[in-house]
Queue: 2 jobs
Job 1
Amino acid sequence: MNRYHSEGNLANILIVDDEPNNLRLLSDLLKKQGYKVRAVLSGEMALSAAKSHPPDLILLDIMMPDMDGYQVCHHLKNDSETCQIPVIFVSAKDQGFDKVKAFAVGGVDYITKPFQIEEVFARLECHIKLNDLQMKLEEQNYQLQAEICQRNAAEKALQEQNELLKQEIERRQTIEIALQKANQDLARSNADLEEFAGIASHDLRSPLATINGYAQILQLRGKEQLDDKCNDFVDQILKLCNRTNLLIEELLSYARLNQAQEPFQLLKSDRLLQQALENLTTEIYQNKAEVTYDPLPPIIGTESQFVQLFQNLIGNAIKYHGEESPRIHLRAVHQDNCYLFSIQDNGIGIDEKYSEYIFQIFKRLHSHDYPGTGIGLATCRKIVERHGGSIWIKSQVGQGSTFYFTVPTEPRSVEQQMIAAIAHAN
Ligand code: ADP
């Protein structure tokens, strides 16, 4: 019968005794019992044999010349390569065996000669198993430690992420607060603007109408009585009245954009465009403008505002024409979650550095050469943003301009915009 330890190898025993007869006897008995046995005659030999091929167990004689069993055991236990090997001392009854010393130097057990061989086998088996179990335990312990280290590292990483997340939440909260404040400011300035527009419409329009009326009477009745210079003055007054009236109208309509009076609905873009072109009939005719367009998609929004958007952009494209007659082309493409509209003209163009500036209210680049109020593009931006899109220009002086604006295709985002618009209006 072969003796195996837990890893499936033949159990390997090193016997150390300076008495060749003893060695042979024990060695034969163990071999018969199925162990793999190596036998050495001195402490020195035992140390080098244990180091070169560590056995599963050592049977160590106490009384040996040069180096006794205690010393051998002491060396074995102080060497990291051999310290795990269980050592069982073998002593003769009359040799004065010191059990306490044997355990103190690291022995796990002892056998006294003459011995009963069954007892020797039983002790060998017991300690080989014990040692196996201990090794396994140590291995498990080691794995457990590694796992704990891994978990600690994962926990640390999690804590770090948590910290980052906290910082991100705080950052967003700060932004949200700033946004809320900006919204409140905006709502206040919108309310101020609406109030101002209300005052402008009631308190400015009626005196303006009176001035306009008197100037018209003067123009009719005073033609013969007044000299040419005075007639020119009257013409100027009438022109200024018209311009101021236009300014009031545009300001009023700009201020009222947020007061959504019409509901959002599905709109045919080409119909909206047709309406805008009808409103621009005079300008198109007078400037011999040519307006072409590709098929345009249906969109969701407020009808009158989209008519106004098309009208403002095409009206500008006609107004700011160069030497050639205005040629304007509209197209729309589907891009991500929106339609991207473009209105391209062959007009005078603008310097790129004014791309943002011209969308601000009352900001104009060509105020001397072209009539206008500087409200048109601000109105366009407000309309587009109210519908959840954005608007911008690509242009070069003398090379024409292309205005782009987006309209979300997803009804959800439009709904969200509606809610935002309602909240904003309140
Ligand atoms: P307005 O036309 O009444 O001056 P807008 O707000 O419509 O006001 O336009 C602001 C300015 O942007 C204009 O004064 C003009 O300088 C410039 N602009 C607008 N549209 C065009 C265009 N198609 N080509 C060149 N410049 C333009």
Job 2
Amino acid sequence: MNPGARLIVLGKQGAGKGTQAIRLSRHYVVPHISTGDTFRAAVRSGSEFGQKAKVYLDAGDLVPDEIVVGVVSERLTHSDTMHRGFILDGFPRTVHQAESLEKILEPRPLDLVLNLEIDTEHVLSRLASRRVCSDCGANYSVTDNPPRVKGICDVCGGEVVQRDDDTESAIRRRLELYEQETAPLIAWYSDRGLLVTMDALGTPDEVTERLVSEVDRRKASAAG
Ligand code: AMP
């Protein structure tokens, strides 16, 4: 594997992909790119783009591929991601997005896709306790990983709130779309020899340790 890392964290809602993607980006000192955070920031800004995105987010629907691909492809031209790599979180979510990403990244492909595996029963309880910083997007859980001061983000001091789209109907819709649109990516990346499936259960520290040791093991064997 090259210096830095070009990783995707994949997983259904509640698998902890946001939390783990942030932790991996700190560990490997590479940018964390979350399409969900990008859209939530646009919604907060009240821009025309944000108002359009809000309709999809509130319903739990996918933002159309051409919009998401445009956002990611613009971000991946910045020099930090070109030199250090990146951790993609929440993208790709469809095979079409994965195909577009493959073209954007040519000639240097991805290093690895980490697929966080969790069953639906755990997903629902994790989503009920999920909280997010309304300023920087840091993820918390009121049960497993609360902010040090209730309601205040450890990272930036912003307000920690429940996501607007963590409603029962939007959660159900996101899980449905995951099965239809995103789950096929598991076979797609597996066919390309890029996928590793990891158990998402455990404390955030335990899961991070698991992911880091897998990435490091692959880095060491790629380095020969
Ligand atoms: P997330 O924070 O990853 O759960 O994303 C929140 C919401 O943003 C999703 O429910 C979608 O409405 C939208 N979104 C984020 N990433 C994508 C993507 N790759 N493709 C389509 N919609 C997305």
